[in-house]
Amino acid sequence: MARRVRLHADFESDLVAQIEWLAAHRDVTWIDRLQSGIDEAIELLEVTPAAGRAIDRDGDTVMRKLILRQIPFVIWHSYEEGARRGDLWPLRLFHARQDHPLPKMARRRRHYSTLQLR
After folding, report:
1. In degrees rounded to 5, what are phi and psi of residue 115?
2. Which of 2, 69, 98, 116 could form a disulfide with 94 if both were Cys (CB 3.0 to 4.6 A apart)?
3. What pLDDT, on a 0 to 100 scale, did the predictor assign at position 79?
4. pLDDT by residue (tens digit) across 97-115?
5. Three-class DSSP labels, 31-93
6. Residues 99, 44, 11, 76, CA torsion sign
7. What are the tens digits of pLDDT across the range 69-94?
8. β-strand 73-80 against 61-67: which pairing, if any?
9. Phi and psi at residue 17, to the nearest 5°
């Protein structure tokens, strides 16, 4: 059974910032590649939430780091393991070489977006 994916507001802000940077500094095809990479990652995470390397845990809630296949970007996401099987939350989006602080697990559900990527 697929999990519902709900975008955290920080992920949405990161996405907008990355698109703006790519529009100013790279060819428009980079934006298309980023969008395709995110779509592919979300399809994977819906059915395989444990994809990526675990980077933090708070009880049954796990945060993982997933590197996109076709473009050097990283998605941090969280979900609940076990019987509770809640929604999956993409939390942050970074370029692989970008400095980024570890997000706080407690913020994982406070703000979410209704932005639809597909």
Report:
1. -60, 125
2. 98
3. 87
4. 877 666 555 444 444 444 4
5. HHHHHHHHHHHHHHHHHCCCCCEEEEEECCEEEEEEECCCCCEEEEEEEECHHHCCCEEEEEE
6. negative
7. 989 999 999 988 765 667 899 999 99
8. antiparallel
9. -65, -40
> What is the maximum alpha-carbon separation in the chain?
45
Burial 66-86 (b: 16+ CB within 10 A, else e): bebeebebbbbbbbbeeeeeb
Give residue 11's identity as a one-letter amino acid code: F
Which superfamily is assigned to 7-106 in CATH? RelE-like (3.30.2310.20)
Amino acid 59 reads: G
What's the rounded Cα separation, in Å, for the pair 109 and 111? 6
The domain segmentation of the chain, as residue ranges, is: 7-106
